[in-house]
Amino acid sequence: MPVGTVLVTGGTGYIGSFTTLALLDAGYDVVIVDSLYNSSKVALDRIELLAGRRPDFYQIDITDEKALDEVFAKHPAIDSVIHFAALKASFAPHSFSAVGESSVIPLEYYRVNVGGSIALLQSMSRNNVTNIVFSSSATVYGDATRFPNMIPIPEHCPIGPTNTYGRTKSMIEDVISDYINAQRNNLEKEGKPFQQWNGALLRYFNPCGAHPSGIMGEDPQGIPFNLLPLLGQVATGQREKLLVYGEDYPSRDGTAIRDYIHVVDLARGHLVALNYLRANQPGVKAWNLGSGRGSTVFEIIKAFSAVVGRDLKYEVVARRAGDVLDLTANPTLANTELNWKTELTMEKACEDLWRWVSNNPQGYRQEPPAELLAAVKKA
User: Which residues form the NAD-dependent epimerase/dehydratase domain (predicted)?
Assistant: First the structure.
């Protein structure tokens, strides 16, 4: 018997696919809904290769309540949701791509991210699905350096996103909190069981890396959003150079500081948060998922260049409005309450990313090398 059945929205995306793998390995059954807007159905094949089981999959838009209802009706065992489905901004403070998409098309970001989350909660309510783990972001904090003693950033740091993407994440946190609290309060007033309604808000920092097998990783459609995937494209010759936005920050080398977390650790964080909701029924809780270790842009370039074996070309350009100096997590709460901490280093993430991009320069649009597949099947 499975431990439980979980709906994963955005489950073919980068973090969603790794979380699906972690759930399957832990004994859960998984149902994925994804529009495939910025992901590939091939991720399902790689998940199956590594887990030995294939999640059920439905290609639907998160804003389509009727389609969500149909999925819940087909899978009445679903009792929890892990919610990733969202447009991912290239203008989040931890990103390095050239186009600030969320600031260019803000209404689309609010429609999909906030509207889609409301549609999901409406459908969950109708189908009595009571646990939700939300993939939030450290971008909800904005510039934490505006307050004393808030670096590394704790969960009680005031919320203050500096861009559209961060504001959608912050708004969804509020919607989930208000909804879960209302469900619990209304049921308690009626003298009915209420503890089954719970939400986890996971504010994570910079996901990076790939599966150590080299057959599963991030496969961005078009321009990647984050520093390490862009460096991967420079290393494979798909991109001439990396643009570094500013070297005049008050940091140890003048570049911005970010907390990089291996995607395998991050996926495990979603799993343990779900387990915590099911076991402890805490209501709504927020946790930072990060390493507590901040790395500058130049330090990441140096670390990845060392793995590749040559210096990678970059050019320093002007800072961008909305970027902040330091996004480093204080993960103490997750360490103590969830018994979770990062186990894989930023350097390990660089090694795994290089194994992925060097063997799969076209991502999921090619078959991985036969020797990598053979090693997975043998294991």
Answer: 6-290
Q: How many domains are contained in the chain?
A: 1
- H/E/C letters for each residue in 126-166? HCCCCEEEEECCHHHHCCHHHCCCCCCECCCCCCCCCCHHH
pTM above 0.70, yes or no: yes
Where in the sequence is the domain holding 232, given as residue range(s)?
Answer: 5-378
Local confidence band at 103 (pLDDT 50, 70, 90 cut-offs): confident
Task: Give the residue numbers annotated as catalytic, written as ranges.
Answer: 165
Residues 6+ apart with CB under 8 A from 369: 214, 359
DSSP 3-state assignment of 204?
A: strand
Which of 330, 355, 349 has its CA nearest to residue 205?
A: 330
In angstroms, the CA 39 to CA 173 distance is 24
Give the whole-angstrom CA distance, residue 302 versus residue 1: 47
CB 134 within 8 A of CB 201: yes
Give the pLDDT band of residue 100 (cuts 50, 70, 90): low
In angstroms, rounded to a whole number, what is the distance separating the alpha carbons of residues 345 and 349? 6
> In CATH, what number is assigned to the domain containing residue 272?
3.40.50.720
